[in-house]
Amino acid sequence: MAIVVGYVPTKEGQAALSRAAQEAKLRDTSLVVVNSARGGRDMSEAEDRLALEALVADLVAQGIEVDLRSPVRGLEPAEDLIAIAEQIDAEFIVIGLRRRTPVGKLILGSNAQRILLDSPCPVLAVKAD
């Protein structure tokens, strides 16, 4: 089994990746890092991609087995995380949360809420400092 973590280059994404790495070490399991952008667009900035690869290299140096996935299927990030968690029979999913107003949630929807409600496994939600 593995831990699935949703990662985007934000404070919330970094918090999720950091906690997922801690859990992977604790449980002696692998980590599947999923970088999914809305509408299936991959990370647009080359420096963001290089930064992500550097983060993955750091995790590998810590002894964590990492599988980096950047799906480009046109799905919402929540759908990508849920599909990958089902595909690999994940132990759990780690996501980062950000504070949003009730109106923001209503207008923009909530990937976090969708993951929490539709996930085939437990979800660990973390907030950035």
Main features:
129 residues, alpha/beta, five-stranded parallel β-sheet, 5 helices, 5 strands, 47% helix, 19% strand
Account of the protein in words:
Strand 2 (30-34), helix 2 and strand 3 form a beta-alpha-beta unit. Mean pLDDT is 85; it is low at 38-43. This protein has 129 residues and is an alpha/beta fold. It is built from five helices and five strands, in the order E-H-E-H-E-H-E-H-H-E. Strands 3-2-1-4-5 form a five-stranded parallel β-sheet, with helices on both faces. Helix content is 47%, strand content 19%. The chain has helices at 11-27, 46-61, 77-88, 102-108, 111-118, and strands at residues 2-6, 30-34, 66-69, 92-97, 123-127. It is globular, with a radius of gyration of 14 Å.
Number of helices: 5
Count of strand segments: 5
Low-confidence stretches: 38-43
Which structural class do the helices and strands define? Answer: alpha/beta
What is the N-to-C succession of helices and strands? EHEHEHEHHE
The value of Rg in angstroms is 14 Å
Distance between the termini: 29 Å
Tertiary shape: globular
What level of helicity do the residues show? 40-55%
Spatial strand arrangement across the major sheet: 3-2-1-4-5
Q: Give the DSSP E fraction (strand runs of 2 or more residues).
A: 15-25%
Q: For the residues shown, what is the average pLDDT?
A: 85
The biggest sheet, with number of strands, parallel, antiparallel or mixed sense and barrel status, is: 5 strands, parallel
